[in-house]
Amino acid sequence: MDYRSSDHAAATDVTTGGTHLPGPRAEDRLPETVSSAVKIVIVGGFGVGKTTMVGSVSEIRPLTTEETMTQAGIGVDDDYGSDTKTATTVAMDFGRIRITDELVLYLFGTPGQERFWFLWNGLFEGALGAVVLIDTRRLEVSFDVIGRLEERGVPFVIANNAFPDGPRYPAEELRDALDLDPRVPIIECDARRRASSRDVLLTLMRYLHEMALHHA
Q1: Which of 102, 104, 108, 129 is 20 to 30 A (C-alpha) from 72?
Q2: What's the CA gap between 166 and 160, in Å, rounded?
């Protein structure tokens, strides 16, 4: 894909039917140095922090599809944290971050509720790897998520989003509880903090690089 030409076209103001449609903000335009792009998905159960991670690390204004939670979800969705959580992702979150001057990651956050998992098929298409966000207060919501990634053969790392009231476990205990391959990296993070979320993405990129070398 010619990223420079496509971005230039998108940046041009368009007038249609008398309506002026401005291009993206200057800070959102793809830098001229970028020559490669990688698609990454951020997955996990309901309320584990996927939207927060995309928003904290994205260098552009993130696209979100959050909708207000209503009584219609009672008895259908996981109600964990319903006293503080008022909105939920119903399609996807989208963000972008440069890892180097040449390499950019496009981030796609998936909806957590099982009733929206049919959307995962499209979001996973072309993804090089995934971040699985977990919450140690509810490890069980991660089992099906990890199983789906393993079925699809999508490489992933585990990011333990350290909630203040969440129990702390050594990495190997988490590995055993989640029945993970010994090679899968596990890293603690705070999805609210840009530097922490960036470290998770760098861990995934290093893991993908090691896997590529191993299969070369």
Answers
A1: 108
A2: 10
